[in-house]
Structure formats: C-alpha cells, structure tokens
Amino acid sequence: MFIKSLSIISKNTDDVLRKIEFRNGINFIVDSEQSEKHNKVGKTTCLKLLDLSLGARSKDAVYTDYETQSVNEQLKSFIEDQKLFTELRLIDDFNNPTKEVSIKTELFNRGKRYINGEKTSYDELNKFLNKLLFENFVQIPTFRSTIKSFVRILMTKDNTQFLKVLDNYSKTSEYRALYNYLFDISNPKNDLEIGKLKQELKKIESKENSYKKQNSLHDIAKIKQINIIIEQEINRLEQEINDLVDKKSFEKNRIQINVVRKKYEEISQQISRLDFDISQLQKYIKDTEEKSQRIVNSELTSDFFQEVSELLPD
Question: pTM, whole model, 2 decimals?
Fold first, then answer.
C-alpha cells in the first residue's frame, strides 16, 4: 500500500484546509518561501499527523513540542474550535489502483477514528493497519512497534538511538522479535516466547543464588546430598509414626471424628434454638403475670371504694 494523500479538514464547515498529495517514489517537504533557515514549514507537524493517522495514541502531540514540552495554545484552540480531523488515503498502486482505504482521525478532544467511514476503536484500527500494511495477522509484533521503524519524529534521537524505536522500558527480546520480523529472519512469536523463558530462567537463577547465599551453599553436589539426608529423615519419621499408629485405623477414626463433630454442631444449634424459645416463653409468662396482677389490683380498689361509699352518710 502507498500513501496517496493526507488532508486536514474542518468538521464544522467540511472545508479542506490543507491537502498533501504524494507521488510514487521519494517525496520532499520544501519551503516555498525564499528564506535561509527553512523552518516552520510544517515538516514535523506533517510527520505527527501522519503518525496519528497510522495509529499513534497521543493527539496532543500535534500542538506539543517534544523537546520543551511547551504547548501551542493557539493551534490547540484552532483544532478544538474548527473540530479538525485528518484523512489519510492509502492505495495499492499509483498507476492502476484497485484498492483505496480512508483513515479519518479526529484531532479534537474525544475525537473518534474511522476506517472507510465506519467508526472504530484505537485497538481495532491498529490491528487493521497491521494486516493491511504488513500482512501481519497474528499481531506479533504489534503495528505500533513495527511502524515506528518507518515514521520517525524525534530527530534528536537519530544520532545516538537510531535503532531504538520502542519505548525505554522495552526488553531485548522485543527488539529481537521486531527486527527478526522486519528482516524475515525468524518467527517473532517464537522470539517473544524465548525472551519470556529467558526472563523466567533469570528469576530461577536469582532465587537459586539467594538460597545458596542464605544457606552458605555453593556446591550443587552438596545441596543434593543434603536433600538426600532430609528425605531419609522424613522416611524415618514416617516409619516411627506407622509403628505407633495404624495408618488405616487412623484414617477411619478421622472420618468418624468428622461425623461426630458434624453431629455435635447440629445438636449445639438445636440447643441454641431451644434456649431462645425458652427465654421467649419466660418473657411471655412474666408479661402475662404482670398484666394479671394489674387486673387483680383494679378489682380490689373497686371493692374498697364500694365499702367506703356505704359507710359515708348521704
């Protein structure tokens, strides 16, 4: 596939603000003005937009300077106000194209990505491009790992880190997988697996060294001899236990103990429920007695009043 064009378009007005058309072969970005320094013509910005169209994640890179980390607020506001997006068009042949693909990337905040007009996710876009440009259907290495060898933006690194296209935390196995894939030397999936196995081997060796250091052991033969002695001691202790306790009887008793324990728990729960019922009944009886006492006292008061009333003169 070849890059046919890269356009910058306003979503608000559908106006094409800038369109860069590519030709078959080498393409140069040159200054149209008669100046000596030839700066500020958009070389780096063009590369950034191209990188974003090819699946780069950070959209703020368009208006952020890599070296100084300063933000071009005017450009940032213009992108947000005009709702700018890029459209990258890819073709399979310049002379007789039979396939054309459109990649749209909205540069503003929360902007989406589109493949041939259909909205897609960041991950799906990169998988699609990996298949389209590199015919990599297993996605190893990833598209972003591979494309960094072809889209270079940080020119300050080209002198000392020309081959280090991945991030600073990438392992040697990841670089080996990438370059073996690019030069078709070996299967990158196998390279990554070998890298993981080597990492595990290093961890095991580190643990082995720590064990030797803690136990003052440096001879493998000596360690094996100690293991033999430990195994012999284990066998001796097991034999003594077997002499004291019959293993089959012990297992049988353990099963019976578990049955009894379970039954004990069930009985304990029943006792707890009965205790609760008894306490509730006692409370009910007490309340009933108090009510009965109040009724009796009321009758006595009535009788006393009647007797006193009869003794009083009219």
Answer: 0.55
